[in-house]
Amino acid sequence: MNINKKTDPIGVFDSGVGGLTVTREIMRQLPNENMVYFGDTARVPYGSKSKDNIIRYSRQIIRFLQTKQVKAIVIACNTASALALDVVKEETDIPVMGVIAPGAAAAVRVTRNQKIGVIGTEATIRSHMYSKVMEEMMPGVEVIGKPCPLFVPIVEEGFAKHHIAEEVIDYYLASMKESDIDTMILGCTHYPLLRSRIMKYLGDGIELVNPAYETAMELRKLLKGMDLLNEGGSRGKETKGEEQKGPACANGSYEFYVSDTADKFKQFANSILPYDIRTTQRINIEEY
Amino acid sequence: MNINKKTDPIGVFDSGVGGLTVTREIMRQLPNENMVYFGDTARVPYGSKSKDNIIRYSRQIIRFLQTKQVKAIVIACNTASALALDVVKEETDIPVMGVIAPGAAAAVRVTRNQKIGVIGTEATIRSHMYSKVMEEMMPGVEVIGKPCPLFVPIVEEGFAKHHIAEEVIDYYLASMKESDIDTMILGCTHYPLLRSRIMKYLGDGIELVNPAYETAMELRKLLKGMDLLNEGGSRGKETKGEEQKGPACANGSYEFYVSDTADKFKQFANSILPYDIRTTQRINIEEY
């Protein structure tokens, strides 16, 4: 086992761009942390794929991230957190965390009537992972899950602000709106990008939980507990071409890797993150 | 080089289910042919991915299909036809054909004003392959391309008959409708499943070309020319568990392979094909 240092980066991965909403929260809440992000743009989306493929993909990505001397790994993807976290956590000699437990913890804290909605990909909802985790935290909690498979392409193809998004939201969420849930988890990292429209559609009676925010808070606790929280140091090694400094609000050094072309990834990332990614590097993830 | 027989199957592949619209046409027009279909459900969609990944995927699939003693291969995917056909054709010792040349040939035959629209994935449109091929066939032809990335998820998530499909069609095709094209190619194998709605939207002035139909006709010519057309023989070898006979309108034996779970694939296939697929087999395509 390698001995990690505070200045070592955090590894973050997702099937594509969705995990950038988690990255954004980590940048905000842990502005001194260095990060290595991997977006699996060659194999996106994960939400319609099988458990064993998602586990295989996650293992490859973790092997890749470990070549970057990361001190901890965040699976910034609900589908991979639901299907692969339990398995890969056991196999990995550094901490690996997902987005589901933090999101579930926030939802049980927020709800007053113990009735919680969860929206996500087909694979996430079918796994019932949010229900299982919340049932452990709050026995008797009632959970209503709803897969919303069109939300990811709606976001990725730039329709989040188009009126088509409203119709798709109505199509998927009419039953949630009519139910008596008081809390709903945005159980896919793309969904925070539809947050304001979903909030407007559901009205004041339903509180939305964004696991990204909670994940960054949990990550801070985890690093603090292991005495690995970076409170200001730089990486202390030669920076590579693709590494770059963030602005004042995000002081770390950030590296972005993808498994397919980066054009769309960069464009998307630059619309989400608090600064412009200048370079990304493409790797062949099947080699790991 | 293996010596192929008339009763050997035709290999057909696509990124997922879209190629089944081509399979359907082959079943209709060449009802005695046996077929081995591969749907790359683990790596779908292709339309947003890079040329070198599409070439790598196509090579692996061709290697897999050749283990099934196929006598010819149809790339039943516009994106792979646009990006990989030229390369893989040269490397393969049996005929490999795509859907673009047949679709292009039909469009130049149909047009009266030499103004043709093409809709497809981002990768297909960006490749300008339809334009290049049509320009060779009809110098001076004017081609207007339009990527429609949301059409694939709209079809795959079952929205083809929902009014959301109409709005998405209006979003992408308003400019086509206002242009003076008289012919438009459905340049993605999913799009024939939106054909009636697109036709209704565009009106009588624009003729739609479905390359699937033309591809099956070209395939017949190709097989005939090589004296490999199957006019009634069975495969003449032990059938495997996954092989099955079609109904009267499709007399061949058909095998279906996928690279991820088959549930959705089967459900979708059974809504498109003239009979129910009972079994599919999953393979690890990365091993080829």
Keywords:
alpha/beta; 288 residues; Rossmann fold; 12 helices; seven-stranded mixed β-sheet; 42% helix; homodimer
Q: In summary, what is this structure?
A:
Chain A is of the alpha/beta class and 288 residues long. Chain A is 42% helix and 16% strand.
Query: How many domains, in number, for the residues of chain A?
Result: 2
**C-alpha Rg of chain A, in Å?**
18 Å
CATH A-level architecture of the largest domain in chain A: 3-Layer(aba) Sandwich
Number of helical regions of chain A:
12
**Biggest chain pair interface:** A-B, 25 and 25 residues
- The portion of residues assigned to helices of chain A is 40-55%
How large is the share of residues in beta strands of chain A? 15-25%
Mean pLDDT level of chain A: 92
Model description:
The structure is a homodimer of 288-residue chains. Chain A has helices at 20-29, 51-66, 78-83, 85-91, 100-110, 122-127, 129-137, 151-156, 163-178, 195-202, 211-225, 263-272; strands spanning 10-14, 35-39, 72-75, 96-97, 115-120, 142-147, 183-186, 207-209, 244-245, 253-258, 281-282. In chain A, 51% of the residues are buried. Chain A has two domains: 10-98 and 213-287, Rossmann fold (3-Layer(aba) Sandwich); 100-211, Rossmann fold (3-Layer(aba) Sandwich). With 288 residues, the first copy, chain A, is an alpha/beta fold. Chain A has twelve helices and eleven strands. Helices cover 42% and strands 16% of the residues of chain A.
